[in-house]
C-alpha cells in the first residue's frame, strides 16, 4: 500500500510525472512495484475500486485532479454513477 | 520601557472549504452572506487587536507531508511561506499566490517550549507551503497578509490521528509558550478546518448538521468534559474532513473560555458545514 500511496502523492506533486503517467502508465507502475488488483485499479483510474481497496481518499482525489479528471466526474465515478 | 511577556489576546476558528473563495456564488445567498459577514467581523476584531503574530493552526492536505513522514503535530519556524503551493491551486482557490510572512522568533520559541513541555512536534524550519488550510480563511481575515504567522499543523487527514485531549493539551501548551516569551507581545490564535465534510469519498457533498450543531454547542459551552468527549469513530460519522475539528480543540485549549459561533451554515455546495467562531476574551 505504501508504494501505491507514494505514487499517488508523487503524481500530485510532480506535474511531469503526471504527464508521463497519462501517456504511458506501465513503466511507472513497474518502477513503483505495483501489481495485482492495485495495479488494475490504478491503471484503469478506477477510483471506485481504489476507494474499495482502501486507498487514502485524499490521495485518490488529489491524484485524479492532477491527472486532469473533472471534479464532478470524479465524484460521479466514486459513487458508481459513471464509469 | 521594560518588556512584558506575551499573551494571547484573541482566538478565532473557521472552516477552510475551497468553496468559500473559489465558488462562493454557489451557496444560497443568505448562507454566503452569513459566512462572509462573520469573516468580516473577525477580520475587524483581529485588526483591532493589532497582533504582533498569529499562531495559525490547521491541517495540511498532503501538500507537504506524506505517508513516508506524517507528523501528528508540526511547528513551522520560517520567516515566509508560499501559498497557494502552485499557481494552479491559486487559480482553483481564487487566491493570488504570495509569500505569507512568518514570525520565526515566536515559531522557534514555541517549538523549543513544546519540547521542554514533553511534546514532540516535527520541526519545519522552511519549505512549508500552504493549501486551502490557510489561504482560504486568510483571504478574508488578512487579505494583505500583514500579520506574521506561526503555522502549526495537526494531522487531521490520515488515521490514526492525535486524540482530541492531546490536541487540547497542545493548545494549553501554546498559551504557556506565548506567556513565556517577549518577542511577540500580542498574539492571536486562528484555527481552521471542519466542520462535517467528506473529501474524496462517495458521501462528499453531505453535511451532518446534527453533528455540527452538537459540536458547536459543546464548543460554545467551554465545558471541557463535553468538548473532549469524542472518539475517532464519533468524529468519523461527520466525515473524514470532520477530523479537522482537532484544530478547533487546539484553539479551545489555548484560551479555555467559551466561544461565540458567529456563523454556522450547512453548505452542501461548498461540501462542508461552514462555521466561524470567536473566543469570548
UniProtKB/TrEMBL annotation, chain A:
Any GO MF annotation of the entry: dioxygenase activity
Annotated keywords: Dioxygenase, Oxidoreductase
InterPro entries on file: LigA_sf, Xdiol_dOase_LigA
Domain Extradiol ring-cleavage dioxygenase LigAB LigA subunit positions: 4-81
Protein name: Aromatic-ring-opening dioxygenase LigAB, LigA subunit
The species this protein was found in: Streptomonospora litoralis
TrEMBL record, chain B:
Enzyme Commission no: 1.13.11.8
Extradiol ring-cleavage dioxygenase class III enzyme subunit B domain: residues covered: 11-270
Gene3D superfamilies: LigB-like (3.40.830.10)
Molecular function per GO: ferrous iron binding; protocatechuate 4,5-dioxygenase activity
CDD domains recorded: PCA_45_Doxase_B_like (cd07359)
Pfam families (alphabetical): LigB
InterPro entries xrefs: Xdiol_dOase_suB
SUPFAM superfamilies (UniProt xref): LigB-like (SSF53213)
UniProt KW keywords: Dioxygenase, Oxidoreductase
UniProt-recorded name of the protein: Protocatechuate 4,5-dioxygenase beta chain
Organism in which the protein naturally occurs: Streptomonospora litoralis
